[in-house]
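pinning this so it doesn't scroll away 📌
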Amino acid sequence: MALKEFKLPDIGEGIAEGEIVSWKVKAGQAVKEEDEFVEVMTDKATVTITVPFTGTIAELRCKEGEVVPVGSVIAVIDAGAVGGAAPAAAAPAKPATPPPAPAAAPKAAAPAPTVAPAPKPVVVPAVAPVAAPAAAAFVQASPGKVLAAPATRRRARELGIDLASVPATGPRGRVTNDDLAAAGSPAPAVAGKPAAGTGAPRFAPVAIAPAPAGRTEERVPFRGMRRKIAEAMTRSKYTATHFTYVDDIDVTELAKIRTDAKKAFADQGVNITYLPFIMKAVVAAMRQFPAMNSSLDEVTNELVIKKYFNFGIATDTDNGLIVPVIKDVDRKSIGELAGDLQNLAARTRDGKVTVEDLSGGTFTITNAGNIGGLFATPVINFPEVAILGVHAIKETPVVRNGAIVIGKKMYLSVSIDHRLVDGATGARWMNVIKEHLEQPYRLLLA
């Protein structure tokens, strides 16, 4: 018997953990290399990992719904009968005499022997495991400087917490605000995790009472995409100081140009929407106010101003809100942007986007215009500095040359991180967008 441990691989930039969405195999099942192995969800995407080599599944160490750090052992495969080569993501296993567990394990329920030094178990699944060991948090292995953002250090001082004593779950062993909250004010666990999915464990979790007699209800596990969205939204609202600025845009002239462009590209199968024009106007505004295309590096305490323009487009899907990214907006024509938007939206709704499609954004646009409403206050896609809400175009009376005529207007709303951008800057930035959309010839000069 040749037992090989399979660790959760690093499957994207900045990914520190992944949720086991579904196993494609069972313990005791014979598998071949490249068979579907496990579906994993991260903050960036849902990916299916294949079996690294031929053999038999000896053990699955995580349950569906469990969130585990990158590098944790999630399964053990017996490749002894076939002699398959170990994958890049798998660590060599120690020889084992009893088949159920790796050798030299001090306790039957202890974390796997190849996890980070001196681990302390942290229960993180959405559904509590019955027999599988819990994933381990990364704990600083040396007495050197503890990794933490300046804001986290300040909060630790306010709470009187020694950072060196806090188990770190952030990237590269960095202590996060959630780690501080967990260490400073432990709350009752719900399904094995304090305030699961809320991103704010400083609040005690709320239990919902059962339905009254004679009434029914449905309980759906809070995990997968919906939990990821909840975590991201809560972190954004908890970290970035939101303020929202709204303006109405007269797009009467733009509507005429868009109609002509739509006809011109129809034979190419490309649908010209208003979004490419808006994206171009945003680039023009960012060239004048570059702070709107920035992020705060909380580790180095630096404002990072991006000299490239990669715009995330919030896309409504059956699985929740997903934000694929259009790269190099400034280098593409209206037609090219329309084609990219059409292709990326289709792949997103079909669940075919890659980690690369979801990475590298510098700014986000969310378009609710096709649904209705007047305007909204969108939540920033943290750690970006702002998000633009695009709303419905409606016929409305407008004043031109002293006369009231029927025109087309829309609202744009921008939510901005007030820590990094002043309100006056945000308003002036919106004025540039307004000028370019109300006088579309300006887009030719941008």
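📌 and the second one:
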Amino acid sequence: MDNDAFDRKLVEAAFTLIAERGWRRMSVAEAARQADLPLDQARARFPVRAVVLLRFGLQADQAALALAPKEGPHRDRLFDLLMRRFDFLQTHRPGVLALLRALPAEPCVTALLTAANRRSMAWMLEGAGISARGPLGRLRTRGLLVVWLAGVRAWRQDTSTDLSATMAALDRALTRAEQVEGWLACRRRSAAPPPEPEPNPPEAAPAPAG
């Protein structure tokens, strides 16, 4: 079994345990046992529990970027990539929801996920053909993080099979983001970019990226 397959099995088992027991009672060792994986390799690949969340986010990004659209408006490409991330979250929904419920009492985990999600959003921008480099790229990344968190809030309440409420919320958030001058502009501007909006207080989605 290669490392990617190992990680997928352990992360899946870990999120099953999170759904059953909560974040605090999940252990990497128990997840490895549940998945019938060798403990020594689990120790090497997942030295601390937080790595489970980072690997989960990486897998979400890979699921989105594997079929990244190459044509169409940049906004539509972003929408498609973000919805692919939500499709990945949906396959682990009980565990993700349990983790989100635990975050208010886990400030360190929340900070970790916020930073990782910011990296993920940079990858989503690049995947949509929008630069995430430089001052304007950092502005776009922070703006897209706000969009993502708005989608997460809708996704938590969305019980539809097609995630229609999530799609609607994501569409509205992208529309608001477009109204920020230069946020989705793919040309270099001579004027300084507008001030960076601060994301909402930590409600980090557990799909960070590397």
